[in-house]
Each structure stands twice: as C-alpha cells, then as structure tokens.
Amino acid sequence: MTSDNDRRRGLLARLRERPAARSRGRRRLGAAVRLFAALMLAGGAYTVFAPGVQAQDNPPLTGAAAEGKALFDVSCVTCHGRNAQGVEGRGPSLVGVGAASVEFQVGTGRMPMARQEAQAQRKPKVFTDEEIRQLGQYVQELGGGPIVPEGDDLHSDANIAAGGELFRINCSQCHAFGGGGGALSSGKYAPSLRPASDRQIYAAMLSGPQNMPVFGDNQITPEQKADIIAYIQETLKHDQDPGGFNLGRYGPSTEGLAIFLVGIVALVFASLWIAGKS
Amino acid sequence: MKRRKFDMAAAPGNAARGLDDRFQVATPLRRLLNKVFPDHWSFLLGEIALFSFVILLLTGVYLTFFFEPAMTEVVYNGSYAPLRGTPMSAAYASSLDLSFDVRGGLIMRQMHHWSALLFMAAIVVHMLRVFFTGAFRKPRETNWIIGSLLFWVGFLAGFTGYSLPDDGLSGTGLRIASAIMLSIPVIGSWVTSSVFGGEFPGDIIISRFFIAHVLLIPGLLIALISVHLGLVFKQKHTQWPGPGRTNGNVVGERMFPRYALKQGGFFMVVFGVVALMGGLFQINPIWLFGPYEAWVVSAASQPDWYVMFLDGSTRLMPAWEIPIPIGDGYVIPPLFWPTVVLPGILVGLSTLYPFLEARHLKDYRSHNLLQRPRDVPARTAVGAMAVSFFVVLTLSGANDVIADKFQISLNAMTWAGRIGLLLVPPLAYYVTYRICLGLQQHDREVLAHGVETGIIRRLPDGRFVEVHQPLSAANGHADGHGALEYVGWVVPKKMNRLGALGPAIRGFFYPIEKPAEAPVSPGHPPVEPRPEREEISSGESRR
After folding, report:
1. CATH 3.40.190.10 is right for the domain spanning A160-239
2. Is B408 helix (H, G, I), strand (E, B) or coil?
3. ipTM value
4. For residue B123, which of B88, B150, B94, B97 has the smallest C-alpha distance?
5. Chain A residues near residue B296 by CB distance under 8 angstroms
6. Domain A63-143 belongs to what architecture?
C-alpha cells in the first residue's frame, strides 16, 4: 500500500516525507536506548548487590567434598554425569539428594551398580566408610538435601510398641510383617531389613531409595523414625521365635510346604512301616 | 472263714460275662470285632485325617478355655513387650495371652494349627488315593461325595479358625472374604451385611465365627465323618486284587486285636508328629502380624495352603468387569469368577465325578476291587490334570513370595501362572496317559517273556541276547513262553522278587532276621525252591 502511494506521488514527495518518518524512528530508537540503559542499570545493580548466580557454580569445595568429587569423577561420573547432573537413560541427577542418599546407596553396596536392571541390589560395599563420607559431603555440597543424624545408635530410648504400630502401617505392605522383604511389580522388590543398620534404615526413610517412598520428617517425625528402627532392630531381628523354627517367616506359604514335606512325608513313611508289620 | 483267692486270669472273662449278662453285647460285638479290614499302607491315609481331627478337638477344647471371642477394644498389657499399650480386640489380646502367658498355650495353639493343616492335607492325599485307585466307584459314590464335602467343610473350619485370633493376617483374610461375598451378583451386599452384621468389619464377626468354628462346623464334621466311617463299615473297605481276593470277599486282618492295635499305634504316631511340629516349627506368629486394622496389610499375606488355590485364581484372573446396563447400571466384578464360580464348578465336578465316569464307561456294576492307576490311563490322566491345575493355582497363590525369594519378576510369575494354568493340565494329561500305557506295556511284556535276568548270552552266530526268566513253566508253547494273564496286581520284575536271587533284605531300619517270603501275586508262578546256597569262600579252610 505504502509503496503504491509512493510511486504515485513521485520521488520529491517521497523525499519530503522522510524527515517526519526519520524523527519518529529516532524517537523510537531513543526510547530503546533509554530502556536498554535502564535495564543495564537495574541488572548491574542486581549483579552488584544480589548474591551472584555465577558464584554458586564454582563454590569452594571443602576438603572432604573435594576428595569426594575426585572419587565421584572416577566411579560415578559414567552414569550420574559431570557435576552429578545425571545422564539421560543412565542415572539420575544427584543434585539435592543429600548425603543420606549417598550413605544408603553407597554404604549398602547398591552403588556403584553392577548393571542396569530393575533395581540395585545390596552387595559388599566398594568404598570405605571414610570415602562414603567424602562422597556424601560432595553430593551434599552440590545441592543440599537430607542428612542422617550423627551416631550409630539411632534407636535407644525409643518406644518399640509405637514403632511396631508405625511399622505395620507404613512398612509391612512391602517389607512384610517379619521384615523379610517382598516382591513389587516388574522385578522390583522391597529388600530384607535383616542386614540393615540403624543409619541405613534412617537414610532409606529420608531419601526413599529405589522404589521406596520418601518418609520425610513432616510425615514421620525423627522420634517416630527412631521408634520404627527400634522395632526393626529389637523386635524383628532379636525375636527369639518362641514357637520354634520360624520357617523363614514367609507366612502360610512355607507352613503349607512344611506340612507336606515334614508332616505328610513322615506319616506316609509311618503308614508304610505300620502296614508292613505283621 | 475261708479267704477266697482272687483269680487274676479269670477276671477279664468274668467281667465280660457280667457285661454280656446285663447288656447282651456279645453277638453284635463279636461281629464287630471280627470285622476284617484289608491291609495296605495307602488305606491308612484317611486315618491320618481322622486322627488329626481328634487332635484338633482335643487341642481346640483347651484353646476355648482361654480364648475370648469378642471384638471389644482393650489395651494390651501382657508379657509381650512390643505390643504393650497397643489397643486391640479382646480376641487378639486373649490369643496373645494364650501364646505368652498361658502355660502350654503356645504349643497347643501351634499343634491345633498344624493338625488343621495336616487334616486338610491328609484329606487331599486320601482323596487322591481313592480317586486314582477307583475306590469311588459304585457302591461307594456316596462316600466319595461325603469325602469331598468334608474337604469343603474342613475348608470352612480352617477359614473361620484362621480368622478368630483377629490379627493382621486374619483380618486381611476376612476383608477378602467380605469382598468375595460382595462380588456375588444381586445378593452380594445382603449376604455381606448379614454375615458381618453391617459394614465390614463390624463388631460381631468374631463371635459369630467362633460359634461356627467351635460348634456348628465341628458338629457338621463329626456328623459327616461318622456317616463316612459308618459307610466304610457297611460297604466294607475296598481291597487290592490278589490271591484269594475277589469282588465278593474281603481279605485282611480282624478288627480286634491286630487292626485295632495298629490303628492305636498309628494314632500315637500321628499325635507324635503333630506334637513335634507344634513344638519345633513356629506357625502363625500372630504377635508379629499385630492387631487387625483396616489399613494394615502386610506383604506375603497368604491364606493357609488349602485356600491358597483360590488366592491364586484371584491373582491370575484378568481384571474383566462385566457392566450390565440395567437401571442405574450393574457390574459383575472380576473377583466373582475365580472365587465364587470356580469353587462352585470344582464342587460340582468333584462330587459328580463317579457318576460322570460310570456314564462315560457305561459301567454300572459294583466294584470292590481296586484298580492300579496304570490300568485306567484316562482316569489317572484326568486326575493328574486336576492335580496340576490345583498346583498351578496354589503356586500362583504364593507367587509374590516365590517371585521375591527366587528373584523372578512378579509380573512374569503372574503370566507364567496364566499360561501354565491353560497349558500344564493338558500336558500333564498327555504325559500321564503315555506313562500309564508304557507301564502297562511293560507289565504285559514281563508276563509274556519273563523277567530280565541281566545275563547276556552270546549266540554262536555272534548275536547277543538277554536271557529272560519266564514267569510260568512252558505250557504248550514251543518257545517256552506261557502266556500269563494280567490280573491287576504287581508283576514281579526283578529276579529277587521271584526268589531266584533270594528275597531282598526286608526290614525298616534293621533287617528282619528271617527273610520273609517273597510277596505273593496272582501272576506269581510256583518257582522251584531256591537251592541251598553255599558260602562262597576263598577255598582254604577257615578252621
């Protein structure tokens, strides 16, 4: 439209109109420059006064964390990626999982994983306690996260009966009434609690490893966690099985097996014996 | 006054005469005590069930002294520390007291539970024996039906007993039972609310189950067992075919004293095994399950083994809901098929089987002689099919435990169960049928050609033949083969069974000094007496 008008008016008219257009353009340019300057000023002021975003990228790692990073870069980086940011399809980001997660996963030998499968298995741990602490420190300094309280004994003075009730409500669905573990879907499973230490159980509740839900401190308070640990450690592990051999505490399925393998077999032999008597 | 001497030897006779003078029992008792029972180990399987039922009654009575069948909420304050202060039902608290505070309570509870499992196991094993030997045929169909009803009544007894302690496991079982009742179309909700006295769990179910468990069901069991045994008396026990045994007689031992003594001893053995299991193996640790609360469901919550096949069928059933657009819409839930329809079909099939078979074979005669399973391949194969069907379902009922402990995916277990349920029974049928035919053929072969001696002879032309010992003397056959007829009993297949090598050493733990005679069989020919065997020595005199 404009170009059609321009052609009709001729060159002079077009030249005459230019100054007006140029002044509007200049005004606009000026506005843009002022806006830009204001933004620069605001941004500059922000960078000066606010804690720098850049500053978090390279925090001075503490000594232990630096050691941990060195270990990480050798053993974990393949799956969890540089700076523990995760690798698509291989391993999740570890930013924010906290030292509790490291303590559980590495401390029970689940990490490093032997291979990618439904779920990492407990196995003899690869790192020493000191190295695990360093790795934990590194992950903690990457992005914070839950930490297991100090000390190896986390359940003294706890209420076992309350712990039992909490255990039955929150844990027995997967770990079974005797803490022996149970199957989940597609090859996943809830492991046996027998080999777990106080700190590992606490860390598991805090970090929700593998398929376990997170039981944060707002869901199960630290006191309740201590109760649950007390129930597991004192009752489930040290129950004397007053009724005799516990058949693995698998419930009625092994009891059914026992009545055939022991009861019926013994009595069939007895009937063979007694019928052969004359 | 002359002191009369007490004659010890005459006392029983005098007492018996006194009894007979008053009650005139000699004639009926003589008939009873002289009743003959055939003897075979497989006839004792039913006795295991009978004896474990007696143990159930004895231990159960003890338990009722201490059990409190109420759902009143109490706070536990017994000696099991990990539950102290926990609110629970009176039933559960008294079960805990039975386990921890009543002297002998735990072993009684455990013996009761083990003998319940044994009762059901023995019923099933006994039933298999009856099935595979054809003992259910006319005239014993009624007893077969009573026997299969005994399984289902025992099933109910077990389930109600399983529910009584009101622990986490039994509550979970009750919840499933209520869901099963709810799944019945049209009447489901009425059935559930009348059984539970309202919404699940209500506060009446334990006392209702208690009276069913200690009075109604045992009463029914005793009635059925009495009729069962009475019919065995009336119709006489079946026996294996053998020398002198016909369809019209019973060869065996008199009820008194031999049979009664043996049975008394066998009761002691059964009691001993149950007591040992009750003392050595922990069963149903209710203190670990905790009191039942609707939100507590443990992993590996299984029913007892005889209910597990229904659990398995439920786990294998795909989630097929059938919506029926009537009124506000109605849905038949998938649970209905594996837990109501399937048991219904199983009850029908098992009770009707004798009639179905008779109709199929057009065999309406009375049979008092048993059949070896191999001689009726079709029936044996059908039985194998039924057993494999049951086993697949039972294993599927425990599929989460199997998946976990053998590190198999639970989904894979479910699919293996689904496919296995369809494939394994026909396969079992085919394999069993072929095995039966093979065994039959081998029997006929031995009858025709004799027993393999293990001696290989080389003929002059260089061929090797194995020497067979014919079972009968040559009678008219040029080749020395006398054709013996198969009469449905064990065919000797080893030389020592013929007496040629001396009988196998008999005895359970210690050899019986005097070797017993080789087992007689109808196909057993009069073998010539074994020559005196000389001691094989090095030749030099020991003296």
Report:
1. no
2. coil
3. 0.88
4. B150
5. 168-169, 172
6. Orthogonal Bundle (1.10)
